[in-house]
Amino acid sequence: MAPVLGNLLVLAVLTTVQQLAAEPDAVSDPLLSDSECEQEHCALNALQLQGAAVERTEESGGANASAEFNLYGYHHWSTTTMYGDAPHAACGGINTAELIRGTHYYNVASAQAMWRDCGGTGSCWCGQSGGGGGTVGMGCFTCAKGRFLHSAYGTRGRALWALNQETSESTSASTSNTTSPFASEEITLIVGDLCPHAGNEDWCPKAAGRRNTYGSFHHLDFSHYPPSIDTRHSVPNLNFVFNIIECPHDLWERQRRQSRCR
C-alpha cells in the first residue's frame, strides 16, 4: 500500500503546482475571475461590450477629438461658413433649398477631404463618405446632429486678416457674456453638396488627414445658419460640434426622390 500512497501524494503535489501556475492567467481574465460568469451568456456580454468599445473609438474621430478643443460631449468639431443655396448641387444635381424646404433640417456642403476619391480637381459627383487620419467621412446625404459654439475660426479664434489686430468685429461672437458655450440649439443637418478645396483653400482641406488653416480636419459650409445666429452684418464663422447619425426617414425619402444619385 505504501507505494500507492506515495504515488497519490506525488500526484496531489503536481496538481497543486499546476493550479498555482495557472492562477495568474485566470485572475487576469475578468470572465474567469467573476463568479457570475460561469454561465454562457457572460462571454457573449463581454464580446458585445468589447465591440461597443471599438465602435466608440472609431466614432471618436481620433486626432480631431483632442485636448486642444473642447467637444462638450460630442465626437467631432468643424469650422463653418455660409454660402446660400445651390440649384444643382454635387449630390445628384439636387436643389439644396428644395431638399430641406418646410423642415427643421439644414443643408451643408462638406469639405472635399471628407469625401471619397475626389482627386485633385474636387469633382465628386454623388461622392461617398471618405475620411481617415483624423478626418471623419461625410459624403452625399450623410446626416449629423450638433450645435454651434460661441467660439469661432477654429483654434485660431479670429480671421487670418485679424490675427495681428488687438480687436476685431469678427471675434465679437466668441466673447459673448454667457455661461453656455453653445450659440444654438441642437440641429440636424444633411450633406447635399461639396466644398471643393480649389477656391476654398483656407477652409476646405484637400485630402483626408489634413487640417484647414484654422486647425480643423472638418469644414461645413451651411446654406443657412439657424435664426438664433445673427448674420445680418457678417457671417460669424462659428465653430460647430457634432455626431454622425442615421438620416431621419423623411429626409432620406426627400433626397431619394430629388437626387439623381443611385
TrEMBL record:
UniProt keyword terms in alphabetical order: Signal
InterPro entries membership: RlpA-like_sf
Domain of life: Eukaryota
Signal peptide residue numbers: 1-22
Protein name as annotated: Egl5 protein
Source organism phylogeny: Eukaryota, Sar, Alveolata, Dinophyceae, Suessiales
